[in-house]
Amino acid sequence: MAEYLYQTRLAKWILEKRRRTRVNHILSEIDVWPRMNILDVGCGPNGRSFESYALEDCTITGIDILSPQDVKMEHPRFRYFQQDARDLSRFPSKSFDLAISIGMMEHICDRSVLEQIADEMIRVSRQWIIGVPWRYCCLEPHFKFPFFQFLPGSWQLALTRRLNLHNLGSTVQDDASWIKNHYQWLPGREWKSIFRADKARVSLLAGDLLVIGSDQRCPHGNLVNCPEAPCCNAAQSEQSSDRAKGKEKVLVAVPKRSRKDDLLYEDVG
Ligand SMILES: C[S@@+](CC[C@H](N)C(=O)[O-])C[C@H]1O[C@@H](n2cnc3c(N)ncnc32)[C@H](O)[C@@H]1O
C-alpha cells in the first residue's frame, strides 16, 4: 500500500522537492566556491539524490560497486569509477573539496567497514558530509512504516513479510537476518564518532540526519563554519585568499543565504 502511494504523481513531486531541498540545505551547511571538485561515495545508478540537483560548474566523481553500464548520470561534469569505498587509494589525500554520501552508510552494518570508509572519505577530502535517516524520524523512509526502526526484530520481520514492505517480503522470507544485516538506525553521536567527533557536527532536515565535518580550522583552532565560533568568519576570509592563490583565482566572501554570520565564496577572478 505504502509503496503504491509512493508511486503517485503527488508523492513523486513531494519526493523531488524534498531531494532538492536536501541538496540546498547541504550546500548551505558547507563552504561552497566555484568549480568545486566533489566525490560522491555510493553515488548509485541515477543521481537522484545529488547529481540531479548539484551545481553545474562543479566536477563530480562518483564511485560505487555498480557496474559502469548501470550508472547513468545527467550531470555535465560527472565521471564514474567502479570502486569499493573502503579503498580510495586511487585518489590522493585532500584531492576533493567535498566528499558526500547520501543514503549509503545506514546500509553498512559492519562497524569496521564503516570506519574504513569514513577514514578514506576524510583522507581524500577537505569537507565531508553524509546523509542517513534520522533515528527518531516518524516515518522510516525505506520501509515507509511509522517508527519501524524501534520495533522489535520479530515485528519488523513479520510486518515486512505480511505487508511486503519495501518489496522485501520474499527476501526476508528466505533470509530472516536480512534487515538486521542491511539496515541500521544509529544515534547522531555514534555517526559523529565514526566521522571524527572532534571535527564533525550534525544537522537535521526533516527525516534526514546530516553529519558534516571539515578539516579547515581557523587560527583559534575552531572548525570553520562552526556556529559557536565568532572568529570563524575572519578565518574563512583568510582561507579564501589562501585557496585563491592555490587555484589562481580571486575569491571574495559574500553573505550566505541561510545562516546569518556564515560566508560563501564568490569567484570574481
Ligand atoms: C541506497 S543506494 C544510494 C545511492 C545514491 N547515493 C542515492 O541516494 O540515490 C546505496 C548505494 O551504495 C552503494 N554501496 C554499497 N556499499 C558500497 C561500498 N562498499 N562501496 C561503494 N558503494 C557502495 C550501493 O551499490 C548503492 O548504489
Written overview of the protein:
The structure is a single chain. The protein is an alpha/beta fold and 269 residues long. It has three domains: 164 residues, Vaccinia Virus protein VP39 (Rossmann fold, 3-Layer(aba) Sandwich); 33 residues, no CATH class; 50 residues, no CATH class. Helix content is 32%, strand content 19%. The protein is built from eight helices and nine strands. The strands form two sheets. A seven-stranded mixed beta sheet has the order 3-2-1-4-5-7-6, sandwiched between helices. β6 and β7 form a beta hairpin. It is globular and about 50 Å long. The C terminus is likely disordered.
SSE topology sketch:
Blueprint: H1 2-6, H2 9-29, E1 37-41, E2 59-64, E3 78-82, E4 98-102, H3 111-124, E5 127-133, H4 153-163, H5 169-174, H6 178-182, H7 188-194, E6 200-205, E7 208-214, H8 232-247, E8 251-255, E9 263-267
S-adenosylmethionine binds next to β2.
Oligomer: single chain
Q: Look at the structure and name the CATH superfamily of the largest domain.
A: Vaccinia Virus protein VP39
N- to C-terminal distance: 54 Å
Number of strands: 9
* Shape by Cα distribution: globular
**Lateral strand order in the biggest sheet:** 3-2-1-4-5-7-6
> Average pLDDT, to the nearest integer?
83
The ligands found in this model are:
S-adenosylmethionine
